[in-house]
Every structure is written in structure tokens, then in C-alpha cells.
Design a protein that fits this description.
Blueprint lengths: L1 E6 L3 H17 L4 E6 L3 H4 L5 H4 L7 H8 L5 E5 L11 E5 L8 E4 L11 E3 L3 H10 L4 E3 L5 H5 L7 E5 H6 L7 E4 L13 E6 L3 H8 L4 H17 L7 E8 L2 E9 L6 E8 L2 H15 L2 H8 L1
Parallel strand pairs: 1-2, 1-3, 6-7, 6-8
Antiparallel strand pairs: 3-10, 4-10, 5-8, 5-9, 11-12, 12-13
Length: 298
């Protein structure tokens, strides 16, 4: 049996695909694996901001289409790129592992950032959180793969990238500050891998289930449930991070204005991931003023 794996062509995407292939080979060494590289909208247009391109989904729809059309059998994504609602005809069959979900400030340490520091990032989530703590900070748009982003360090005071990307590619910048979630709450699913396949491919689903890390899946499910309840099309910066505390999931989440002037954070814990995500979303929206913030943005 040959299993075709659809993926983006960046070095990070290919490394993540290689990792999933390793996990599959450990479970089913008889399976031959073939990589199918797909160019997505986000890959082809490296100048337009992600928000203008359509936000979440610009890096996954092309890869998903390869599976739905039969050109590939499974798709490997960064979980943070997936919209909250799984595309029709597909199933999120496995969330196999997660590395550090936090963000990294590269080029300068947080405490050493000068007055009116210039930071490069294309993420409105990162901008809003950092501006909330430091309204003096200025921002510059940043697109491209991780290596391209790191090349910008000499042009600005710092760039912000996912720590997971640095770890997976074994990149160790000289000046790097991993930001705690108290400063910058991660994007939903950040640091985790996500493997999709067609919902009728039961044998593949069962095989992929064996690659899954159950605690990681529950944490990511809680974050994605939160995002789905808030609305994955929400134009405001949202963030969520779930971890296990003993036998319960602790979920921290936030919503912010784009300028960072308003940043609402909530947290709660529970056993059922999906119920917890919905509970935290409703708490944020209905009790803490999130709905008012959304209405002001309409």
C-alpha cells in the first residue's frame, strides 16, 4: 500500500510531514509513503497580508483539495492554520504531537526593547498583545517562510515567530526570548501537527488514530472548540492555550481590539474539551465584554 501525503513545500512543512511519516512508519512499516507538494494561496502571494488574503485557511485549502480530489490520501498541516470547522468530506484524524506553543521574540530580549521599538510581524494577534503591554511599540508587516523572516532581524529591533518553527528546524538565533503566555497568548493549535484524511477512508483513519497523542488532541480540541464558538471568521485577534493540570484541561483564551487598547482574557478548567471551549468562549463573549468588542468592530 502506498500512502500519499499532501503538504506545502516550505522547509518547515516538509519537516513536519517527515515527522508524521516517521510516526506512520513506526506503526505500519509496510506502508510506502509518497509526498505530494501543493502550492497554496498563502505560498503564492507573499506580499498581501494574511488578513487581506482571507485569514485562517489560506495555507490549507489547496492541501485539503489534493486529498478531496484523490491526488493524495492524507494532509499534514500546522494545526494553527486550520479553520475551526473541518471542511466537508474530511476528518481531523490525528493530532500526533505538539512542541513549544509559545511565540519567540528574535533579535532582542523583551525587557531590553527600546522605546518605540520596531517589531516585524504579520499577525494581528501578536500585534494586539504586545501593543497592549507596550503602546509605544511600532509594527512592520512580515510575511514569508521562517528563514526569510529571520533575515529581517537587521532591519528592525525584533521579529516575532513561532517557537515551534525554530525548534522543528533546529534554528537557534543568537538573541531569542521565548515569551510566556502571560505576555503573548498563543494562536489556537500553535505548535501542534494536524493530519486530515477523507471521512470515508476508515482504514486510514484507524491507522492515523494510532499516531495520536490523546492529551495533545484534547488540548487542541478545547482551543478549537473555543474558536468555533467565537466564530472562526472573527476579524478580531483571538488566542487560546490549553494544558493539562492533573486530570483537567486548563484553557486560557483572549480577544482583543486590533490596536491592543482592549484585551480581554479569561480562563477555566474542565474534563470535556469541547464543552470547555464553548464555556470559555461564552464566558469571554457574554460575561467579560467580548460581544461588545465584536459589535464595536462591525
Amino acid at each position: 500500500m502506498t500512502l500519499r501525503i499532501a503538504t506545502r513545500g516550505s522547509r518547515l512543512a516538509l519537516r513536519q510531514t517527515q515527522r508524521v511519516a516517521e510516526l506512520i512508519s513506526e506503526i505500519s512499516p509496510e506502508i510506502e509513503l509518497e509526498t505530494v507538494v501543493v502550492s497554496t494561496v498563502g505560498d503564492r502571494d507573499k506580499k498581501t497580508s494574511l488578513q487581506e488574503l482571507g485569514g485562517q485557511g489560506v495555507f490549507v485549502t489547496g492541501v485539503q483539495s489534493a486529498v478531496l480530489s484523490g491526488k493524495a490520501d492524507i494532509a499534514v498541516h500546522s494545526a494553527k492554520d486550520l479553520p475551526a470547522e473541518t471542511s466537508s468530506g474530511l476528518i481531523l484524524a490525528s493530532v500526533p504531537e505538539r512542541v513549544d506553543p509559545r511565540d519567540a521574540l528574535v533579535g532582542c530580549f523583551w525587557e531590553d526593547l527600546p522605546k518605540a521599538a520596531l517589531i516585524a510581524t504579520g499577525s494581528i494577534r501578536r500585534r494586539s498583545h504586545l501593543a497592549n503591554l507596550r503602546p509605544d511599540i511600532k509594527f512592520q508587516e512580515l510575511r514569508g517562510n521562517i528563514e526569510t523572516r529571520l533575515l529581517r532581524i537587521d532591519d528592525v529591533d525584533a521579529v516575532v515567530v513561532a517557537k515551534a518553527a525554530l525548534d522543528r528546524l533546529e534554528l537557534k538565533p543568537e538573541r531569542m526570548d521565548t515569551l510566556p503566555v502571560s505576555i503573548l497568548l498563543p494562536q489556537v493549535g500553535q505548535g501542534a501537527l494536524a493530519v486530515e484524511c477523507r471521512e470515508e477512508d476508515f482504514e486510514i483513519i484507524q491507522m492515523l488514530r494510532k499516531t495520536e497523542d490523546q492529551k495533545v488532541r484534547s488540548a487542541v480540541d478545547a482551543e478549537r472548540s473555543f474558536l468555533a464558538e467565537v466564530g472562526s471568521g472573527c476579524s478580531l485577534p483571538v488566542a487560546a492555550h490549553a494544558v493539562f493540570k492533573k486530570e483537567e484541561i486548563l484553557l486560557k483564551a483572549s480577544i482583543a481590539s486590533e490596536d491592543g487598547m482592549t484585551l480581554i482574557k479569561v480562563e477555566d478548567s474542565g474534563i470535556d474539551a469541547n464543552e470547555l471551549g464553548v464555556k470559555v468562549a461564552n464566558k469571554l463573549l457574554n460575561e467579560e465584554g467580548g460581544n461588545r468588542l465584536l459589535n464595536e468592530n462591525l
